[in-house]
From TrEMBL:
Organism per entry: Deinococcus sp. VB142
GO BP annotation list: tRNA methylation
Domain of life: Bacteria
Protein name as catalogued: Methyltransferase domain-containing protein
Chain positions covered by the region annotation Disordered: 1-30
The Ribosomal RNA large subunit methyltransferase K/L-like methyltransferase domain, residue ranges: 184-354
CDD domains: AdoMet_MTases (cd02440)
Residue ranges, compositional bias (Polar residues): 1-11
Record's keyword terms, sorted: Methyltransferase, Transferase
GO molecular function: tRNA (guanine) methyltransferase activity
Length: 363
């Protein structure tokens, strides 16, 4: 079993966030502000709002909608949002109104700008009734005016249409990136049961991000929690284990793609033979018993896991757990006296609604 390795990556020798390049000249005067909206997994809106609050120049923020005069590239670096969209509202009672001469001209300019900035060559519509004659006509008009291919399945630029929140018009949202932001570029290896990266980011942020943490990610699977933490900034040491050889290989592939050097070993998380109090933060998404593991094996795994992690965690250490086995987890928590738990969030993702908990050792 490898010891947790100190973080010697030179990329971490300066505070998280890295070097900020100064905008040249009067940045604000050179770029018109546009309106944007971020998409969050239901349950993670607050985490996304907190990350948005740190975006310089974002203003007139209403929930996850805001005005922003800076480069859209800055928004593509948000880690908690599923996607970022340019948004514009038209004062029309129904989508047919977008085919009016003036509205169509404005819509074409709007979509054209996003397509040019994002380098999109094709588009698709995401709207209720996108097969309707009006939507098809809109798609034809945009395709002709902009020279973009309308590809209903694989179109690179996703255009969503929806009634505006005040019921007075229609919103058009144009996703600024070809893929969702949650589909990380480092994910070269995909695994069934792989964690959505925005959830991994949220877990780390809410469990606390400390430079001196020695971090353990048991049951690391494809390495999502390891990589999202490594990309956040400094830590003292980090190690991941998984019992399955293919998961370990998958995590290593993704870590390499992310350019991060983190030790991952094929070891049973319950039998690491590491000394007591080796870690300050243990963070994991336990098997949920559907895609990975079984409900029956979880009956044994969950209590054994809590006990062993108590041994491995330092006196003031934290254990952050995501699980969909809510009844089992809460029952097991009620039967033990090692940990105090608080719920961090419940998130809706891929048909599941797991909860994240933060546990502290009882004194
Ligand atoms: C829900 S998946 C983790 C997914 C991972 N976070 C990701 O993003 O890919 C759970 C993982 O726990 C591993 N596992 C189950 N029991 C284990 C044990 N006793 N020790 C180590 N790993 C275990 C499985 O092999 C599986 O990869």
């Amino acid at each position: 079993m490898p010891r947790p390795r100190s973080n010697s990556n030179p990329a971490f020798s300066r505070p998280s966030g890295g070097k900020k390049s100064k905008p040249k000249g009067d940045y604000r005067a050179r770029q018109p502000a546009h309106e944007y909206e971020l998409e969050a997994l239901p349950g993670l809106e607050q985490v996304v709002a907190t990350e948005l609050a740190a975006v310089p120049l974002a203003r007139d923020v209403r929930g996850l909608r805001f005005w922003y005069p800076g480069s859209p590239e800055r928004l593509t670096r948000l880690r908690s949002a599923v996607a970022a969209y340019r948004i514009k509202t038209w004062d029309v009672p129904r989508p047919r109104g977008l085919l009016g001469h003036q509205q169509l001209g404005e819509l074409t300019a709007f979509v054209g700008e996003v397509a040019e900035q994002g380098g999109h060559r094709s588009f698709r519509l995401g709207a209720a009734g996108k097969e309707s004659a009006v939507m098809q006509r809109l798609a034809e008009e945009l395709s002709t005016a902009l020279g973009l291919t309308h590809d209903p399945e694989e179109g690179e630029l996703l255009l969503r249409l929806r009634p505006s929140a005040d019921g007075q018009g229609w919103d058009v949202l144009a996703r600024i990136t070809r893929r969702p932001l949650s589909a990380r570029v480092w994910r070269e290896c995909n695994m069934g049961g792989g964690l959505n990266a925005t959830i991994a980011y949220a877990m780390h942020k809410l469990a606390g991000q400390r430079d001196e943490d020695r971090i353990f990610n048991p049951m690391c699977g494809s390495g999502t929690l390891l990589i999202e933490r490594a990309l956040l900034g400094p830590y003292d040491a980090m190690v991941g284990v998984d019992i399955a050889a293919d998961a370990v290989a998958c995590a290593r592939t993704n870590l390499k793609a992310a350019g991060r050097d983190v030790e991952v070993a094929q070891v049973d998380a319950l039998h690491t033979e590491l000394p007591p109090r080796s870690f300050d933060l243990v963070i994991t998404d336990l098997p949920w018993g559907d895609a990975i593991g079984s409900h029956q094996s979880n009956e044994v795994l969950y209590p054994a896991f809590l006990k062993e992690m108590n041994r491995l965690t330092s006196r003031r250490g934290r254990l952050c757990v995501l699980t969909h086995e809510l009844r089992l987890f809460e029952r097991v928590m009620g039967q033990q006296s090692d940990w105090d738990a608080k719920e961090l969030f419940q998130v809706y993702s891929g048909g599941h609604h797991p909860k994240a908990y933060l546990l502290h050792k009882r004194a």
